[in-house]
Amino acid sequence: MKKRLLLVGAGHAHLEVIRQLRNNPIENVEICLISPSDYQYYSGMFSGYAEGIYSEEQTRVNLRELTKKSKINFVRKKAVRIFPERRKLFCEGGAVYPFDLISFDIGSKSIPPDFTASIARSVKPNYQFVEQINHLRERPTPLIVGGGAAGCELALSIQTYKNNHRIEGQVKLITSRAVLSSTPGRTARKLRSVLEEAGVLLWEHEKVTHIFEDYISTNENNRIRHTGVLWLGGPVGDPIFTDSSISVDERGFAFIRPTLQFAEYDFIFGAGDCVTLRSDPSMDKSGVHAVKQGPVLFRNLRAYLTHESLQTYEPQKHALYILSAGDKKGFLLYGGFSLYGRQAWRLKHKIDTDFMNKYK
Ligand SMILES: Cc1cc2nc3c(=O)[nH]c(=O)nc-3n(C[C@H](O)[C@H](O)[C@H](O)COP(=O)(O)OP(=O)(O)OC[C@H]3O[C@@H](n4cnc5c(N)ncnc54)[C@H](O)[C@@H]3O)c2cc1C
Predict the structure, then answer these.
(1) What distance in angstroms lies between residue 282's CA and the mean position of ligand 1's atoms?
(2) Which residues make Cβ contacts (< 8 Å) with residue 182, sequence separation at least 6?
(3) Maximum Cα–Cα distance for the chain, whole Å?
(4) What crossing angle do the helices spanning 12-23 and 287-305 adopt, rounded to 10°?
(5) pLDDT at position 216, please?
(6) Cα-based angle 101, 87, 289 (whole degrees, multiple of 5)
(7) Ligand 1 pocket test: which of 106, 154, 289 has the largest number of ligand atoms within 8 Å of its C-beta?
(8) Which residue, by CA, sits nearest to atom 2 of ligand 1?
(9) Which CATH superfamily includes the segment(s) 3-108+236-305?
(10) Is the peptide bond before 125 cis (omega within 30 degrees of 0)?
(11) Is the pTM of this model over 0.90?
C-alpha cells in the first residue's frame, strides 16, 4: 500500500521539497500539499511591491502549477490541529487527512494575542499581503508597529510609494526598542537619517499599549493618530501546535531536533519560522534559514521513507540580509558589516528574482 506524506504550508523549504520532487520522485508515496491559498507570496519582494517596483504576479508562486509539475496533490485548506498518536491532520471546515509522515512549513503570525481582537492589520499569513498594503498605501497616516528589518523596510517603501505617486501623508513608525536594535550603532544612525529624509515619523523606545480606531496610546502616555495600523512587531506562532499539545517555545513555535524532526515525534518534520531548533533557540526567524533548510528537509523526508540515515541542519553563524530603503537603494547587513546604497539594492533584486525564477 502507498504511504502518505503531507506537506503543510507552502513556505520556502516546502517549495524546494516540491521542486526537487519533480526530478526525484519517491516511489510508492502519495504526496499532498495543504495550504490555504493558491499562491505563496515571497516576503523578500514585499518592499518592492509596496513601493510599486514589482507587480503582484512577480511576488508570488502559483502552487497549483508547481505541484502539478511535480505530480503531487494540492488541497487548498488551512490546517488547524494535529493528532500525532492517530496520525491525523484536521483542517478548517472539518476535513481530516490521515498520514504516515507529515512536515510543517506554515511560517509565523505577527499579531500578539493581546492585539488579535484590535483593528491592527498583519501581512501574515502572506497571502494577505497585497490587500493590506494596497489599503495602507492610500491612507494619509498609516502607522507601522515594529522597528526591525520588516517594519523599517515597509515604512520606507510605503512612504516612497506615497512620495512618488504624490499621495499626501506620512508613514508613522513606532518601536519598543531602537530601530534595528541588533545592528551596530552606525547602521541604525544611517537608517534613522534615511527614514527622516523620506518623511517617515519615528517613535523609538515606546510601547503600544492600546489600539483605537483612529489613534494608539503608548506607555509614555502619548496618543498617536493614524489611519490604519500594520503590526510587524516580531513573529509569533500559529496556535496549531499548542492546541495539539505539541511542545513549543515561549512564542508558540514547535521544538525540533537538528534533523528537522519534532522534539517528540520522528514522523513529524518542520522547517522555517514555525519551528525552533532546541539546540539553537535564538536563531533568527528569517527566510534565509527557511531556504537553507529546504534541501536538508527534502533529503530527510526521503531518507525517513526509505529507511536511510538522516542529515542534520547546521545553521550558519551569520546570514546576509538586505533591506530595501526606497528608490532602489538598500542596506546590506552581514554580521557587524553594513553597506548602504544602490549596489546593495541591485544585489537584493538579483537574489530575489533568481529565487523566484526557480519556482515559476
Ligand atoms: C515585510 C517583510 C519582509 C521580510 N523580508 C525578509 C528578507 O528580505 N529576508 C529574510 O530572510 N526574511 C525576510 N522576512 C522574514 C520572512 O518573511 C520569514 O522569515 C519567512 O517568510 C519564513 O518562511 P517560512 O518558510 O517559514 O514561511 P512563509 O514564507 O511565511 O510561508 C508559510 C506558508 O504556510 C501557509 N500557511 C500558513 N498557515 C497555514 C496553516 N494553518 N495551514 C496550512 N498552511 C498554512 C501560508 O499560506 C504560506 O504558504 C520578511 C518578513 C516581512 C514581514
Answers:
(1) 18
(2) none
(3) 65
(4) 40
(5) 98
(6) 45
(7) 106
(8) 150
(9) FAD/NAD(P)-binding domain (3.50.50.60)
(10) yes
(11) yes
What are the DSSP calls for 40-104, one per residue?
A: EE-GGGHHHHHHTSS-TGGGEEEHHHHHHHTT-EEEE--EEEEETTTTEEEETTS-EEE-SEEEE
Q: What is the pLDDT of residue 51?
A: 98
Q: Which H/E stretch holds residue 291?
A: helix 287-305
Strand partners, 323: 331
Angle between helices 342-359 and 12-23 in degrees, nearest 10: 50
Q: Measuring from each residue's beta carbon to the nearest atom of ligand 1, which residues come in under 6 Å?
A: 8-13, 34-37, 40, 43-44, 46, 78-79, 105-107, 123, 125-127, 150, 153-154, 232, 238, 240, 272-274, 285-288, 290, 321
Q: Are 180 and 191 in contact (CB under 8 A)?
A: yes
C-alpha cell at 97: 487527512
For 37-67, how does the pLDDT look when each residue is reduced to its tens digit (9 = 90+)? Answer: 999 999 999 999 999 999 999 999 999 999 9
CATH top-level class of 113-234+319-359 = alpha beta
Residues 137-152: b if buried by 16+ CB within 10 A, e if exposed: bbbebbbbbbbbbbbb
Q: pLDDT for 238-277, tens place per residue?
A: 999 999 999 999 999 999 999 999 999 999 999 999 999 9
How far, in Å, CA of 105 to CA of 31, rounded?
A: 15
Q: Where are the domains of the chain?
A: 3-108+236-305, 113-234+319-359
Beta-carbon count within 10 A of 229 CB: 25
pLDDT, one tens digit per residue, over 188-208 is 999 999 999 999 999 999 999
Residue 354 in grid coordinates = 533568481
Residue 182 has pLDDT above 90, yes or no: no
